[in-house]
Amino acid sequence: MLTLNPIALEQFASDNYSGICPEALEYMLQANHGSAPAYGDDIWTQKATDYFRDLFETDCEVFFVFNGTAANALSLAALCQSYHSVICHETAHVETDECGAPEFASNGSKLLLGKGQNGKLTPEAIATIVQKRTDIHYPKPKALSLTQATELGTLYTVDELLAIQSVAERYQLRIHMDGARFANAVAAMDVTPAEITWRCGVDVLCFCGTKNGMAIGEAIIFFNRSLAEDFAYRCKQAGQLASKMRFISAPWLGLLETGAWLRNAQHANRCAAYLEQQLSSLPGVEILSPREANGVFVSLPETAIDALRNKGWLFYNFIGTEGVRFMCSWATTTARIDQFVQDIKTALAATRSVNAHPEVEDSVAPVLQERP
Length: 372
Hints:
By secondary structure, the protein is an alpha/beta fold.
């Protein structure tokens, strides 16, 4: 008999750690009955594609790939030539965590990094980068990449997106949106998906299914259909054309048709809000950035961090902050949060005790530095 160990329980390192939600799994099992045409010529893929068009209220082009790295890299490659550049925030996932995939897929399009509070690009930062150089010796800015929700868990408001659209139109920049947690953004902002994408000038969205309850699978949605010309060939060449496509598209249909995509995001956001509420009153805990979606970024004493990891809790030190990131998912429970918070309280109390008696040596645990 398999014995469940603490690491197998719900963790706070990433929403990638969670399993498959019931709706996605049920539709995958339904798609497993009998045979179906390969490479996306099946009814599941057609239905999921049509559902995205209804959801976004526009006739968009939809492609399915295995993971977010491929989705971001291939879509940016479709927006740029090799001599172009992409403007993104300095903490953007495409810059810090894609192992150079956007540059590789585009045969060299350079990422130009902008600053902005709480992980968000500003129109001023974009304009400064565009105006920095216009000579032929410098890669020509051609696209923007916005992360919604951002790597620091914050959200671009509709007004902020419209302001960015204005500067993008001024400098003829195309807009890519990395929607690794797009569902969480829609849930938190209480807007329609259309309101924060194509109606704000977004040309292509990478809509994540993996963090929202699927096993694998991202949807690349081109609102500017002309940019999707021959994109299917790009997916095939990159090894991202699934032969049994229905096992990606059917779970997507499960999320969309049942409304689970939004319920899952709402639940994850509520859990993060509850976690933030529990942590905000604890001495020794500092909330580092606004909690607007399903991530909580905090500063803790190193001794408390070590103690938590020694107890089997998994979470990440985070790029761009002085602290750690706690992520909630569709599968997070308040009971598990309460258990986590109790262990944080115990670790903080031990830290205060050690600080009061410095002759007690601290135990040191390995620090997990990377994140998915």
